[in-house]
Amino acid sequence: MASSLSNQSKLALASTGLVAVLAVAAITVATVNPPRNGQSAGTIAPAERYRSAQVGENDVTLGDNAVPLLMQTDAFELMVNDPSFRALARDPNFAALAQNPQAIIAMAQDPQAFAALARDPQAFAAMAQSAQATAAQSQQAQASNAQAFAAMAANPQAFAQLAAQPQAFAAMAQHPQAFAALARHPQAFAAMARDPQAFAAFGRGANFAAAARAPQANANAAMARDAQAFQALAADSQAMSALAADAQAFTALASNAQAFQALARDANAFQALAGNAQAFQALAANAQAFQALGRDAQGLAAMARSAQAFSSQGRAAQGLDAQAAAAFAQNAQAFSALAQQPQAFAAMAQHPQAFAAMARQPQAFAAMARNPQAFAAFARGANFAAAARNPQANVAMARDAQAFQALANDAQAMSALAADAQAFQALASNAQAFQALAADAQAFQALASNAQAFQALAANAQAFQALSRDAQGLASMARSAQAFQAQAAAARASAQGMSAQAFQAMSQHPQAFAAMAQNPQAFAALARSPQALQALASNAQAFTALARQPAFAALAREPAFAAMARDASFAAAVRAN
């Protein structure tokens, strides 16, 4: 009969069942837990963890116990007992959402915005597509945007005034040297801004230098009222040379008369703008970036707000220079990763040169961050240079032998580490933070391989040490810089034909767009999954609550998270709580 089984078949099934039971028993009784709370790999975890009520043959994949091990961690224990997590996990579409853990972690930074976007799949997809284009932007463009950010963050009031009059800003961005020359003489510049049409003739060949030298002798009443100011301008040979080289700046002034007049009406604001040589020097030095911004009034205003927010948040960290601000903008993902691990950031800020040396070999640095305790001895006199030259003799170094040998051959890096061996103790004392940092491979790579970020850290040690004591402020500054970079990229994309729907969505949710631009592939995949978006849209409140839970991010970062969401044992655990 078809239902009959031979003795041999019965024996095979019995053996399979026994192996499955023994595998589950081994996992349940003495689990090898992934490192946490500073523990070294291989630590025996407590036995009293989740037990599946009923385990079948299909619930255990022999030779791959990553999911059961994940379900033994503290992060899982906390989450499976969290009502918000259970509400989200019980959604039939949760497994689809969980297939994009990088996107989940990024969305947790701005959960309300992403929940709103998930309710409009077309807008979400348009933004994701634009984010991919933004991520492909050249390093040169990103560096240019970063310099613009540094200028705006250093002169927030001046650029806020310019952003309020985008036509005037666009004109200045097209003729930066000429307007920088005018700004050296605020009173004369104000007279011209109040009556731009009176100066249009100088864009058509009239001799401005001669008129400025004798302002009372010509028919220009606007110049006569401020004769002394124009004479001072005429005596400034450098300014007059810049104006002679670009007489079309007078035409630009007259063509945007209404915008310049509006700018001039607020005397205090205009004084703050026109008397700010640094702002105009930045305008001239980053002409291409600012010209792109000048074509996008809405984006310019949003960027000015981001720069203002960054400046305001950074006031507590006195001494944060333009290089640091530019580093924030150009390395937003790296600083965002650091902001999530303030203890690691504080350690790096206390030992900037040493950690900059480690970061010159990212693979070696990652090995050290994964197992910090193994390197503590080098703070107590053990010879790091000798160990790095012969890494096969050191268990913690052997797996990345080539990287450590490369580090040993870097004389400058080894000198910095020798000068501050206590950096190894700082690494070990903050083991959990560094392990968490290393667990996010993409963020760690962005951080560790970024020389500019570490140079800024070393050059602004005192300011960054102050920031390390304010994790929330650091995170806000990183988000502001990230949003600015995304807004600048969107301004360029808009000029190149970004869809109106994508631009509107980006303008409403700049930080969400910034997160997408940092993880374009993850969000592109998410945009192609209507089930995942439905899970997010239907559980907005639960997701917003979970975004505040560090354990949720820790669980999502685990490599087995996506597989766990599809596992029958996981479903049973959620139902049981």
* Structural class designation: mainly alpha
Write down the overall geometry: globular
- The CA-CA distance between the termini, in Å, is 44 Å
- Biggest sheet record: none
- How much helical structure, as a percent, in the residues? over 70%
**Overall pLDDT metric:** 79
Assembly category: single chain
Count helical runs.
Answer: 46
Rg from Cα: 30 Å
Strand content: under 5%
Instruction: Please mark out the parts with pLDDT under 50 across 5 or more consecutive residues, or reply none.
Output: 1-63
Number of strands: 0
Index terms:
577 residues, mainly alpha, globular, disordered N terminus
Give the arrangement of secondary structure elements.
Blueprint: H1 7-29, H2 66-70, H3 74-80, H4 83-89, H5 94-98, H6 101-107, H7 111-118, H8 121-135, H9 139-154, H10 156-164, H11 166-174, H12 176-183, H13 186-194, H14 208-213, H15 221-224, H16 227-234, H17 237-245, H18 248-255, H19 257-265, H20 267-274, H21 277-285, H22 287-294, H23 297-313, H24 322-330, H25 332-340, H26 342-350, H27 352-359, H28 362-370, H29 384-389, H30 395-398, H31 401-408, H32 411-419, H33 422-429, H34 431-439, H35 441-448, H36 451-459, H37 461-468, H38 471-495, H39 500-508, H40 510-518, H41 520-527, H42 530-538, H43 540-546, H44 550-557, H45 561-565, H46 568-576
Helix pairs in contact: 3-44, 4-43, 7-42, 7-43, 8-38, 8-39, 8-40, 8-41, 9-10, 9-21, 9-23, 9-24, 9-38, 10-20, 10-23, 11-12, 11-22, 12-17, 12-21, 13-19, 13-20, 23-38, 24-36, 24-38, 25-35, 25-38, 26-27, 26-37, 27-32, 27-36, 28-34, 38-40, 39-40
